[in-house]
Amino acid sequence: MIIGISKDSQESHQKFKRKNELNFILLTDDTGEVLEKYGVLKNKKMFGKEVLGIERSTFVFNKFGELVKEFRNVKPGPHPQEVLEFIKENLAY
Questions:
Q1: Using alpha carbons only, what angle is made at residue 62 by residues 56 and 66, rounded to the nearest 5 degrees?
Q2: Residue 43 scores a pLDDT above 80
Q3: What DSSP designation does 16 have?
Q4: Which of 44, 68, 79, 82 could potentially form a cystine with 74 if both were Cys, beta carbons 3.0 to 4.6 Å apart?
Q5: Spans of all domains in the chain
Q6: pTM over 0.90
Q7: Average of pLDDT values for 17-44?
Q8: CB 59 within 8 A of CB 34
Q9: 37, 15 Cβ separation under 8 angstroms
C-alpha cells in the first residue's frame, strides 16, 4: 500500500491526485505531527530566506509495520524504480 503525507489540504490533495492520475492515498498532516516524527521538517532556503519545509522522503515498512528502509531527500524521476527494486529484492513474501 502506498500512502503520501503532507501538510497540504485535502482539497489540494484531491486536485493533485486528479491532475496526476494517482491511485493511492494522500493524507493531510495539518499539525505536522507525523512529519516531525519522521524528521522530514527541515530548514530550507527559498528566495534567499530560510523557511521550514518538507524534505521529500520515502519510508518502506514490512508487513509487520516495521520500518525497514528510509530514502531521504529524494527526487521524483528515477526514485519510484529504486523503491520498487528495493521492495522486490528485500520484501518478497
A1: 80
A2: yes
A3: H
A4: 79
A5: 3-90
A6: no
A7: 93
A8: no
A9: no
